[in-house]
User: Fold these one by one.
Assistant:
Number 1:
Amino acid sequence: MSTTVLRTAVVGAGAAGLIVGKRLAEQGVRFELFDDHVRVGDSWRDRYRSLRLFTPRSLLSLPGLRIDVGRFAYPTGAQMGDYLERYAEHFGLPVRTSSRVVELTRLADGGFRLQLGDGDEVLAEHVIVTSGAHRVPIVPAFASELDPSIRQLHSVDYRGPEQLAAGPVLVVGAANSGTDVALDAAGAGHVVTLAGRHPGHVPFDIDTPISNLVGGIFVRYMRSITIDSARGRAMRAKELAHGVMLVRNKPADLARAGVVRVGRIDRVEAGRPLAADGTAVDAATVVWCTGSRPDLGWIDIAGVVGDDGLPTEHRGLATGCPGLAFVGMPFQYSVASSTLVGMDRDAAYVLESLGAGRDEPVVDAPRVAA
């Protein structure tokens, strides 16, 4: 076992972590990023193959390095993963991959101890958690009552239609991932039922040059809606409860694909899923697109994580735990906080508030063998 002593430890080397890391590197801070994936960018490569991002290229690149997709193109998850890996290499950011943090505790002197899965430990004055907002699937309790013959999976674990059993498919949850999965399944020849309320949709096709430009204006506008206003606080509550509107997919796309719409699935009877109006849905596969939450179970500090699995924080600063912060959480400050458009502003605020980059000489991080 070895011990590493740092000024700042960053948990997670996705987009938010790399943005934080670049700022720390520019300030000469003694820091490392710890990520449980084998390669930087795997959190994007591991998503479903049909995924395409919504953000225009002009707003998609991380500070200092443009993503190499066409001017009006939207990258796939795999392309985004490759870009993040290239970003880390380009700026020489100190990322320790295949390094899972299994426990975070507070020390008597106010610092932190991170226990890694390989037995090593890290001691840090500050810890910034950037491990992502969508790691742990959320499914309703009655999912366990479905007939065992029905295959079940969650959108977090969905990669492509080859995972679906032969026969009809029920997709529960009609937001962006749910409609993506429904269109995937319909394209593979399945009879598809999509359950859930329509969350609203962007009223134009984003996959055209003019709409790409308009989309940039829209995204900037969403960045301006923050928790500083009553409207922003109301929107935050709504988003955390119901998710965001459809961006690329439209009700007309689902209708053309033959996707059948039903209301919310709220119970199971005789092993079959039932909608709120009593409609029983036949399904060989149920894909739960019912939300997810961060994986923060490794934080062993009282009061930091709420009963809902979300951090107790204000603008990313952990409530009642000085030195601990988060970047990349849903609506951390604005509608765009969990997107690339909002992360850099949130990272700047967190680092300034923590004082994580002040008065730090440029030195190599020491490792002390046990």
Note: The chain has two domains: 2-135+294-369, 138-201+245-288.
Number 2:
Amino acid sequence: MVSFQDVSALLSATGARLRDSVPLAELTTLRVGGPATVAECATTESLVAAVGALDAAGIPVLLVAGGSNLLIGDGGFGGVVVRIATTEVRIGDDHVLAEAGADWDAVVAATVAAGLGGLECLSGIPGSTGATPVQNVGAYGVEVEQTIRRVRLLDRATGDIRWAEPAELGFGYRTSVLKHSSAAVVLAVEFALRADGASAPLRYGELARALDAAEGETRPAADVRAAVLRLRAGKGMVLDPADHDTWSAGSFFTNPVVPRSAEQRILDAIAAYVGDVTVPSYPAPDGVKFSAGWLIERAGFAKGFPGPDAPARLSTKHTLALTNRGAATAADLVELARTVRDGVERRFGVRLVPEPVTVGVTV
């Protein structure tokens, strides 16, 4: 554990604001996580300087912005948490450029208000703009890789700053070359948008039906944003401090993609357990994608599992979200995640993969 005094001296010229023994539960949407020293950087220059100084000193760094996709252990973090608090957003005629710490939904809202389309299906997703290319964030038939024009990166090994093109980022389903790698820090992201104010083509059936549209049609971006926010709120997927169903990391497991060769075995296992039912599945580049939420519920884990007295439960609105009911620890959430993951694998032979980044815990 590095001393607060040493960190203060090291970062004194970087412009970072230092705080000692900060409960990391304050910085994450799951609201769990033990203490750490936090260096908050409100400018890109401060962020680059702080990360560079800590790296040069060999001090472990944890980058946190919105904290919406993090599960941090109860023991906290032994290095320094660098809080990315850069918030500048610049809107052009057909694009938006946002710094990494800018609140994602605020960026989406600003583009829609400016009469631009393309990001509206990604409304209501908590977290920061800088996290979107890392996760290849997606919802309602749209992923950010479809709109990203370029990403500004800090190379931590060399200190170089450059713009990276989408082709360099290895985008896949909820992943990129930036995920589970500490080689680069996202400083800013530029998105290409539709100047006509129309939405991206509607590819998600539930959303298209809500807008009385055929799949593939477009609608005004403002109408699509409003519909997405209604749908997300109905599933407890829009942050609300008073609603413990939103004390989560969003979808905790990714939808599993299995090889075509395994599809029939899985369908047979489902039929053996739940009978002859229609199983939602979708073509994917590497095989077949199943619905994690559907598998969880059919494996016997209903909304609200394991019950009203549990400190960590599945959302009462959406089985794919693991929630903190107010007093949960990281250990409670890990135990619940393992129970659900192992139960789905035991029933159907599909192993679910957690979506959040874990620090100090293993699911």
Note: The first strand starts at residue 17 and ends at 23.
